[in-house]
Specification:
Length: 364
């Protein structure tokens, strides 16, 4: 699959289904090389540079979609429940998602949907649920399409799920399948695409198995600048072109690092990527800062600890103040003790979430 049109069904569905229900969970993901900036000239949610992420395991969204054939097929019809209760505020986002994916899912107006969604992480944790939420929703719609067209291949199923999730929220396409996922055309990664995420196919050293991610909740408040606005500010950004090239270079460098397990080199790229992302924000016009004083305290404390102990622990950031602390499983005990002793004090209400690498969406 290489073109957007490849995801539009060309033949009528072979099966007729009256009603049913599916349920999927999909995880959050944390980018090692960051997606920041879109190519709006090429379509919806096309990244200006490739990215690669660790899929998480515990932070996820669980969504069920019940569907039933309806008589009037002129318009959408759905109910949205969050943790079992109607949630009107979430409906416009879902409506927009349905509109975006409609050209690729011709059955959408034939059914009434009851979407029931919940997250495993606290709603106000500052962890974006858009990646896991859109991925879980996309999986459910693909399950329905597979019922209508059981001949579809597994490869098509997952690629299209990622393609749809991307239309909901760019980075959601990396929350479908695989523990390391690449999204965006990258010359040296065969099969990589701007349209969907693909599992990283290179060799990966065992040190990355069960890699840990402890998410320190520094600030749970509403972000002052949304990702959408932030991406947009990369247009006419003075450093954008060089940054986009750098993302390609960093992914190229990570390929042998994944194979050899060279954590020193890994840390350099991952931390540099995190700070570069925030440097792009600080040098946008208008400029903005999403890190908080405690974000910097945590970074400095991690650097000091790493220098003193030689334990290969590092940080990364997403578009917010929270800090993801990344470390190999064999250092878990020592790092968790360090977090409890020295970092918890910088977290809002002492809160943090323990996660680790996971494998993607799962049907329930
Ligand atoms: O998917 P969006 O539009 O929320 O953008 C995600 C941007 C970052 O989290 C900062 C980076 C990334 O690659 O996930």
């Amino acid at each position: 699959m290489t073109a957007t049109n490849d995801f539009i069904p060309t033949t009528p569905y072979t099966h007729n289904i009256e009603k049913g229900i599916f349920q999927w969970s999909a995880p959050s993901n944390i980018a090692l090389v960051k997606y920041w900036g879109k190519r709006d000239d090429l379509g919806h949610q096309i990244p200006a540079n490739p990215s690669i992420s660790f899929t998480l395991n515990n932070c996820k969204t669980i969504t069920s979609v019940a569907f039933e054939k309806k008589v009037n097929q002129d318009n959408w019809s759905f109910d949205l429940l969050f943790e079992g209760q109607p949630k009107e505020e979430f409906k416009p986002k879902i409506q927009k998602f349905l509109e975006r994916i409609a050209p690729y899912m011709p059955f959408l107006k034939d059914y009434h949907f009851t979407i029931n969604t919940q997250n495993t992480f606290p709603h106000s944790s500052g962890i974006a649920s858009s990646a896991s939420g859109m991925a879980a929703l996309a999986m459910n719609f693909m399950s329905i399409e597979k019922e209508l067209h059981p001949e579809m291949t597994e490869e098509y199923f997952y690629q299209k799920a990622s393609f749809l999730a991307r239309l909901g929220s760019g980075s959601a396409c990396r929350s479908i399948k695989g523990n390391l996922v690449v999204w965006g055309n990258q010359e040296n990664i065969e099969g990589s695409s701007n349209l969907f995420g693909v599992p990283f196919s290179g060799k990966v050293h065992s040190v990355f198995e069960n890699y840990q991610d402890t998410i320190l909740l520094v600030d749970k408040g509403e972000k002052q600048v949304s990702s959408t606005v932030g991406h947009d500010l990369m247009h006419n950004h003075p450093f954008a072109e060089r940054r986009f090239e750098q993302a390609h270079e960093n992914i190229d460098q990570l390929i042998p690092i994944f194979e050899t397990g060279d954590l020193e080199a890994f840390i350099k790229i991952v931390e540099s990527e995190a700070l570069t992302l925030h440097a792009m924000m600080m040098t946008s016009m208008p400029y903005f800062i999403l890190m908080k004083p405690n974000t910097l305290q945590i970074i400095n404390t991690i650097w000091k600890f790493r220098k003193e102990t030689n334990i290969p622990v590092c940080f990364t950031l997403d578009a917010g103040a929270n800090v993801h602390v990344l470390y190999p499983e064999h250092t878990k005990e020592k790092v968790l003790q360090f977090i409890k002793n020295e970092l918890v004090g910088y977290c809002q209400n002492g809160q943090y979430l323990c996660d680790q690498i996971g494998f993607g969406a799962a049907t329930l």
